[in-house]
C-alpha cells in the first residue's frame, strides 16, 4: 500500500510512517512530495494522503496524525500510547504533554537541518522510533540513574532521606549511602559534592558537614580515599593485577596519586606493601 505526504518531514511525518510499517503494513511505500502536489499525486499513484489539511489522516483537536492512526486502526498498546504522547507534544509544540517531547523535537530538527534527503531521515527515524518504542514498552518505569554511576545513586539516597530531619543516631540515608559506596568500590569512582549539591539545590557545605558526622568523622573526600585504599589492599592481596591496573580500578587519577595516598594512609607505597605481603606469605609456609 502507498502512503503519501508533504516533503521535508520532522515529527509526525516520520512517526506515522514508522507506525504504518511496524503495526499496519510492513511493506508500505512512503512517498514525500511538495505540499501542493500531494492530492494530485495521491490520486495518480493510488496512495493514501496523510498529515495535511482536509484529508482523513490528519490532526483532530489537540491530537496529531499519529494519534489518528492509532485510533483508526484500533491499535491497543500502552507503549504506543506513551510514544503518542511525546510525538503529539513535539509535533504541536506542547511539551507539557510529555517530558520527552522537547528532546524528540530537538533531535529531528537537528537531523532535518543536516539532511535534505527525506528518505534518509525516515531511515534514521525508523531506528530512533524502534528505540523509543522499546523504552516505552520495557523500560519506561526505570530511571536513567538506576544501576548507574554511584554519584547518581547518591542523589537517589538523598532525595529519599534528606528531609527526614535530624536524629541522634545515623539516619537511614547514611546507612544506605555507606552500603552503596561499598558496593561500587570495584568501579572507577568519581563522586562530586558539587554535583550532588547542584542537583539537590542545597549548599554543598551542608552535605560536607552532615557527611562527616556519620562516616568516621572524615570528610567526603577523605572517606572515599580511605575506601579506595582498602579496596586496593584487597586487590593487592587477592589478585595478580599490576599496580597501575589497581590504581585505575580503585579510581585514582594516576599512579603517582595512588602511591602518594596509599603511603599516606598505610605508611609505605603499594610496591613495598606488595613485596612485604609476598615475603610474609613465604615466611609462613
Overview of the molecule:
- A 3-stranded parallel β-sheet has the order 2-1-3, with helices on one face.
- Strand 1 (2-6), helix 1 (12-24) and strand 2 (29-33) form a beta-alpha-beta unit.
- The protein has 285 residues and is mainly α.
- It has 14 helices and 3 strands.
- The chain is elongated and about 90 Å long.
- It starts with a strand and ends with a helix.
How would you summarize what this structure contains?
The chain has 285 residues and is mainly alpha-helical. The chain has 14 helices and three strands.
Mean of pLDDT = 82
Poorly predicted runs are 144-151, 185-189
Q: SS-based structural class? A: mainly alpha
Helical run tally: 14
- End-to-end separation: 80 Å
Tell me the total number of β-strands: 3
Largest beta-sheet details: 3 strands, parallel
Secondary structure blueprint with pairings:
Blueprint: E1 2-6, H1 12-24, E2 29-33, H2 38-45, E3 47-49, H3 65-72, H4 78-91, H5 100-114, H6 118-139, H7 150-161, H8 172-183, H9 193-200, H10 204-214, H11 220-238, H12 243-249, H13 255-266, H14 270-283
Parallel strand pairs: 1-2, 1-3
Features:
single chain; 3-stranded parallel beta sheet
